[in-house]
User: What shape does this take?
Amino acid sequence: MTTMAQENDTRTVGVGPGSLPVDTESIRDGLIHALTLPLATTTREDINASIRHVRGHLNLLMGEELGYDSDPAVRDLFSRAYALLDLGRRPSEETPVFEAFAYLRDTARVAQRLLDIFGEFRRTLNHRPGIRLHPGNS
Assistant: This one.
């Protein structure tokens, strides 16, 4: 049995940042779900599954153009995200449930903030002449 810290990231050949539309509604729903899980009645398996989903959302958002070069607040969020994604910080099977739950919430909050920035950035680009994004991207 592998621990969460030993999971390998799945690579997708031929797909790069910005090449596919980002389903912001699905990501937002997943983050809301993660942030509203009740600790008292949530199993460790549910927490682990939510962590995997939230990390996936976080990785996806970090691959998008969010104004990293021009915005110190975005750079700060990326630093926090990289720290959360570090293998040494990820919960293992031995990590107490409360700590895994706190990690889930911290990761979801950072992803949610990046999602908000992504939406703001996309809206700004959509209002520039000559720039059209995928219709599904808000």
